[in-house]
Predict the structure.
Amino acid sequence: MPETPPTDALVALLGPATDWVIAASLGVSGLVLGAVAGRLAERMITPAAGSALGLLVRRVLFWTVLGLFVASALSEVGVDLSVLLGAAGVFTVAIGFASQTSASNIISGVFLLIERPFAVGDVIRLGTTQGEVLSIDLLSVKLRTFDNLYVRVPNETVMKSEIVNVSRFPIRRFDLLVPVARDAPLDEVRALLIAAADESEVVLDEPRPIVIFNGFTEMGMELQLSAWATQDSFLQLRNSLPERAAAALAGAGIATGAPQRVVRMVSEREK
Amino acid sequence: MPWWSPLDIPEGHERALQLGTLAVRVARRDNLYRLAWRHLDTPEPIDVHIGEATQTEDLGEGYEVLRIAARGSTLALSPRVAPRPIVARPDVPFTVSPQAEVRVYVNTPIWVSLRAERGLKLLPVVSVKPTWFGTNREGVPCFAMRTHLRLSESEVQRRPHRALAPVRIVNEGDDPLVVDRVRIPAPSLPIHADAEGQLWLPEIVLTRREGQEEARLSLGDRRKDPVLAEPSEPMADHAVVRAFNSIFR
């Protein structure tokens, strides 16, 4: 039996070990590079596009870079990637059918992050749900309602719904509908309502409160008192203004509207 | 002695203060200060009143109360700038001709600081109303003030609880400038006191350039009087601000 030279024996012994070392190095490099690339991209994107999109890009970059390096590492230790890719293709089709909803949510989530109709901390209304945005994630938006419930709304639903961002602008108008009797002196009512708004400590001086005549109703006449407040005083305004307006009208002896029906009695003889 | 001198309140005594429409009662008992305050509906008096009051538990309606634990018998009173800019609306809007300037005096309300050791309360000397300066989408929360803008210093009624702000409005445009309100960046200004006890803000210069919607804000000559209160916010040099509401409305 021919004797194996010592160098060949060393290569034969170390060969597989070297491949594993290279594969491990590739894996570690993938982790480090993915993390660095992700963080860099996040830093560049966050100031312009917000933290949520920055985080998304960071995660996508990290997993993409890591995936590529892991594939190279597997190839290095002799794993046939074509078999894996073929299996992955079949697996992807199966997953695709099974996860249509999730995919739709992810795509909707990406569009939400790009369009940014609201941000974390905003108060929004989605259908019948109103609350503070806690997070905007890949699959869903999480809200905290004012009665302290945790609500998860799928991104697809958010994209399809009408979104009302209650806190986007710094000031807000409150409209109070005031029914008054048909014979009420309109000028006096207007003056009383404006004075009631002006006396409130939360009603802004500018934009000025106004009174709008909405029309005749079965209650008599309907007026609308519109007053502005900053976002943080809005609730106080909504709670206090009706009371002030009612007190001002009552103090001046002006009756608020009440439903009226005119019933005409016709006797048989009149017929 | 100016009203911002330290106020001595012996144990078991009570003091009553009135600055503007702000009525304050300070009682001291068992190393506890009771601060009670309200804004009166009566016209704003010219002078500041500080006197002894009879201690009473029943303050009457409308008072807000704060209790501060402090061992010392001294209550420090000092003027403070308003925490938000002040929008002064003249009774009648005035016009600054093209390539002209005008100097007006605005009597701005101040805040008073009542401090017993570490306990502190800031109160406005008159009841102030919030307002918004800007558009519905962006702007600045301010305090509103209706005032007579005086063209001469001698016409201004001096009140020790208000700070006089000279405002120079320079119209470098070729069309007349109608001024119906002026924003005074009170939090960025110091309060000075002259020898007669009158409080002053430094001169504010608002320059409107030709074709520009915004005014350039700068401070005029520095006053030589001592500073009683430092600004609460820094102001950028030559800040470009929307100072005249009528321009961009």
Observations:
- The first helix of chain A runs from residue 6 to 49.
- Strands of chain A lie at 123-126, 129-136, 140-145, 150-154, 163-165, 171-180, 210-217, 220-230.
- Chain A touches chain B at residues 169-171, 198, 201-207, 228-230, 233 (CB under 8 Å).
